[in-house]
Each structure stands twice: as structure tokens, then as C-alpha cells.
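Same chain as my last thread, 380 residues:
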Amino acid sequence: MPLRSIILKSLTCCQAKRLSTILCFTAITIATVGTSPVLAESQSIQERDSKTNIVLDEIHASEVTKTPEEQCVFNHPGEEWVDGMRRGTHSRLCRSALWIDGLFGEEHEFNDKDFRGKVSLGFRHDEKDGFDPRLRVRIKTKLPNVSNKFNAFIGRVEEDSYISNTESNKDRVNAVGLRSNDNDDAEWLVGLGYRNPNTRANGFDLSVGAKLSSGLSPYAKVAHRYMFETSAETYWRTTQTVFWRRDDGFGVSSNLDYTHLLGDRDIVEWDGRIKYTEDDEQWEWITGSTWHHSFSNTKGLSSRIYVRGEEKNPVSIPEYGLTFTYVRPFLRPWLFVETGVDFRWEKDFEYQRYESVVRFGLQFEMLLGDYYSRNRKYND
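reply #2:
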């Protein structure tokens, strides 16, 4: 056999077996030098193994590559109605992301393993504002046909607080944010975001997208995040954001968060948020302190005291309040039930007495994939 053919076949064998460079070099040396019947037989075995491995690799590749019908099919265990509901929800939302990725071509395969999300369904009842049904959806995934450097976001969230990065306790039934966000209706948003994976929790990130419901309305935001530790149990986070919406123009926001760990079961947090927009032409703010206590890895109680207001409000402190929230698993480890109560006191003019208002909330949250673990990984 010609020397060139021997070398090529040896290289093919090495690649098929995924051998190291040193082992490949050794195989080529033996193949070019050996001429004895033993070496010839060894060479023949290697050639057969090489062809077998190539065929197996082709079979394996065909198994890994999924057809469009096979994409987003999740075989979650369980035969109860709640398991079927999760499988159906997971598949439908994943296929929505797959459809969006397909609009940009089919050169790269969509990996449904990158898909993660959560769905929250519940209600809040306020003595002053009445009944408020809630449906919140968050989807995070990669869109390879758009760019491997970008992550996609699809969700039904409070538009203003999400775009301005002033969300407080994302999607929690008892979340209390800026006063202007109280009338912020949930909207369907779709967007693309980028954050340098090498910067971890620090650095710039950007996001562009549009509101889909109530007419197409684009938005864009650029944020700088920085986290630093002052001790093994204490760290600070800052977020500075510049954002734009077609309906409201430009705006800026600034967040400062402090976290202190108290043993294995307790966490104390303090946070402050301020925001200014061209549309409102005023600063508004909220600050508060939260205590979290874990009864186990999946059950916990939180309490928060807060104060909030606006620059042009005739009352220096128009509102303050106290909240309690309890979270625990329900039926399955990926399904949680959350109950909360909010006691607040507010007034519109300085000469008035504070009026007390009570709000109660109940919510179920279903996780699709390893949402919170990946959330930490991608720093979302």
C-alpha cells in the first residue's frame, strides 16, 4: 500500500477514535515502518475499526440532530394532570421560541436544552383597587440563527419596570415597586439581550425589543452592573440604566442593593431605586429592607418594610408599608404556591391622616427547566 494512503488511513482511525496527538503520531509511525504480517493484520483491524467508528459516528449524529417535529418535546416524568400541563406548557412556549429563531434562517439547529422559563398565575385583591388577576411569563433561551452571542427574552411582564430595570422581587405576588408601576399593565415583550460572558456579574449589557400587545412599540436599554464583596457574608450590587421607549422617550434609573448573610437560614437585604423619564419629568424613588428566612431548601418566609414617593408629590412620604410572603412547593418540586399580604398607609395631602389599605395575594409558579440555576449562571 502506498505510504500516503497508509498515513491518511491512520489519521482517519485516530480521528474516529478521538485519540490524542501523541497516540496518533505513534500510530502513523507504526503504520509507515511496520511490514510484518502481524503489523499488517493490526493495520487491517485498525482499518475495519475506523470504518465501524465512522458509521457509528454518522448514526450518532443522525440521532442527535432533531427534526422540527422532534424539537421541544419534553418527556417530564409523571402521569397526573399537573405533569401533563407542564409538558404541554413547556412544549408550546419552546416552540414559540423555535418559530422566532426560524424567522432568521435554518443554518444552525435550535437547541431546546437551552430553553428555560417560568409561568406565574394568580391574583391580588386590594381594598382600594379591587381584584387584579395576574399572568406572568418569562422565557430565556438562545437563538442560534440570530447570533450565538445573544439571548432571547419572551415574556408577559410589567413593561415599564422591566425596561427601566426597576423591578423589585420579579413576578412575586407581593412585589412593591415604584408608584408609577402600580398602574403598569402586564404586556407581551420580545427582545434580544447581550452580556459579555467573561464579565460574570459586572460590565455592560444591552437589550432591544418591542411590545407585541396593544400595538408594536420598540424599546432599547443599556445597563452597567457591578457587584463587589466587602466580606465573606456581605456584598453590594449597583445597576445604572439608560433606556428608551417610543411612547415615553428616554429615561434613566439607578439601583443599589445590599445583601448580608446571617448564617445558613437568614438573609437581610436593603435596596434603593430611583428613576427619571422624559414623559413624567420627575424623579421617583423607593427604598426598603427585607428579611428572608428559609425553613428548608424550598420553603421560606419573607418580610419587607418600604417607603416610596415622587419628587413633585406634595407629601414628602406619601406611602409606606409592610409585607409578608410565604413560599412553598405544591404537589411537585417544580410547582410553588405563594401567599402574601401587604399592609400599607398612604395619603395625598399633608393635612390628611394616613389611610390604611390591605392587599392579599395568591399565586402559583411553574418552573420550565432549571430556571433559577441557569438564571444565576447567566446573571439574568
